[in-house]
Design brief:
Number of strands: 20
Distance between the termini: 68 Å
Structural class: alpha+beta
Helix content: 10-25%
Order of helices and strands: HHEHEHEEHEEEEEEEHEEEEEEEEEH
Largest sheet: 14 strands, antiparallel
């Protein structure tokens, strides 16, 4: 009898896990476009006015922008810092700083946070907003939050009910349909010496946004990336490709790699989770790219809530900087090139599931309310010690109604090193292109692209 009860309980638990979680009610969704923006941000400013009301985002390029260019001048270049946070006053603001930011302020006297006026610059295409409004009352999460169902291309859960839904909003965020950029990845070691980890050509695509009327299927690829390394000499000719689907339990990540010495394309299922990422010379994992990427299945996700935080934002001076040697200084990025603003973020915490394996036992993410981009994260090891911390550098591509966070970085707080990835300014910036053909996205294309 006890066995029967146990079996019944297990079956019920499994059924609950696999059941789709209901979308929000029509009454709740009615807040979208009124007190909330269509993607779920608070439309009003904050109490003291340091965060302004949302007015639709940055829609007009500055006068210095040349039409059609992929280098985007800073529209806020004349702004002056309102506040400077350093090690001397960090404790006063610790409630509005990530754990990594606070640790860097305490550790390095040369580190500081220059806080500028807040600009809610993010603007999205109308089709994305229209689909997001529909998703609010129709989209579901299932498989315990690991997958999504009945979702149109857009933000799936503008009023998230749990941490997994908030993370899906990030994973399915709108950052354009197809883009390309040549970039560098730089490491700075504990002695302060910079070294080039990789130079590559990146093509990134969100295929779900190619047909705005088509619901996203379980096996549909929502994100794919192809990298062809051109430097340094030891890496030149290597190439890799990966794809993520809306239900990773039905269709796990697909990944391929081309190594010139082997002269063949091979499956590479290990290009995921906590496998060290050679593109950062091992200072980050594959799922550290863009602060996070890949499947949610190894963590239990908690929606901690919304918080006002100082985060990197409107970082045109960094993203489009043409001389990275000015930026990568010992111990940390040169503070004068990182613009910080106060924004409201969704705080989401992931705790490693019992029996799951990952070098990070706890992760805390800070998701921008206006774009759902992950702006920062804190990673903790099995001892509960702060291990690494990441930041993404958001700018609005004002000519395309597209927010971007291609450059990102990770600090290894135990090793005293850091990596800055996605440095595009020296190569002409970020280009939005027509989607590549199926042939160009085939694994076989890696061999042709990867020839030295």
């Amino acid at each position: 009898m006890n066995f029967v009860r146990t079996l019944l309980a297990s079956c019920l638990s499994l059924a609950a896990l696999n059941a789709a979680q209901a979308a929000v009610s029509t009454d709740q969704a009615a807040r979208l476009g009124t007190s909330l923006t269509v993607i779920g941000a608070e439309k009003a400013g904050n109490a003291d006015g340091s965060i302004p009301a949302y007015q639709g985002g940055l829609l007009t390029p500055p006068a210095s922008y040349q039409s059609g260019a992929s280098m985007r001048p800073d529209p806020f270049a004349s702004d002056k810092p309102l506040l400077v946070i350093d090690g001397k006053n960090a404790e006063q603001y610790k409630g509005q700083l990530t754990a990594t930011t606070l640790e860097l302020l305490k550790r390095y006297p040369s580190y500081r946070v220059d806080v500028y006026p807040t600009h809610r610059s993010v603007a999205l295409p109308q089709a994305v907003l229209d689909n997001t409004r529909k998703n609010a009352t129709a989209a579901n999460s299932k498989e315990g939050g690991t997958a999504v169902d009945n979702v149109l291309p857009g933000i799936p859960f503008p009023i998230p009910q749990n941490g997994a839904e908030a993370m899906w909003n990030f994973l399915l965020r709108y950052q354009g349909v197809s883009m390309t950029a040549k970039y560098d990845s730089w490491n700075v070691d504990a002695a302060g010496k910079p070294s080039l980890s990789t130079t590559g050509q990146a093509n990134i695509s969100y295929p779900i946004y190619e047909d705005m009327a088509k619901p996203i299927g379980a096996k549909d690829t929502y994100y794919q990336m192809k990298l062809v390394y051109t430097g340094p000499a030891r890496r030149a000719g290597e190439a890799m490709m990966l794809r993520d689907a809306a239900n990773p339990l039905v269709q796990p990540r697909s990944a391929w790699q081309y190594l010139p010495g082997q002269r063949r394309v091979k499956l590479a299922p290990n290009l995921a989770y906590d496998t060290p990422n050679p593109g950062t010379s091992g200072s980050g994992t594959y799922d550290d790219v863009f602060v996070f990427n890949g499947a949610l299945d190894r963590y239990d996700w908690t929606l901690v809530g919304k918080q006002e935080m100082y985060v990197p934002y409107n970082t045109y001076q960094l993203t489009y900087n043409t001389d990275v040697k000015q930026v990568i200084t010992p111990n940390h990025l040169a503070p004068q090139f990182v613009r910080w603003e106060k924004h409201r973020v969704w705080v989401v915490e992931g705790k490693l599931k019992d029996g799951a394996r990952h070098i990070y036992h706890k992760r805390r993410f800070y998701l921008d309310e206006d774009s759902w981009i992950a702006l920062a994260s804190d990673q903790y090891d099995a001892r509960g010690q702060l291990y690494r911390g990441s930041f993404a550098f958001l700018t609005q591509s004002y000519d395309k109604q597209t927010p971007d966070a291609t450059p990102f970085m990770i600090y290894d707080l135990i090793g005293g090193t850091y990596n800055l990835n996605g440095v595009v300014g020296a190569y002409g910036g970020i280009r939005y292109i027509d989607p590549l053909s199926k042939t160009q996205w085939s694994p076989e294309s890696l061999a042709g692209n990867g020839i030295r």
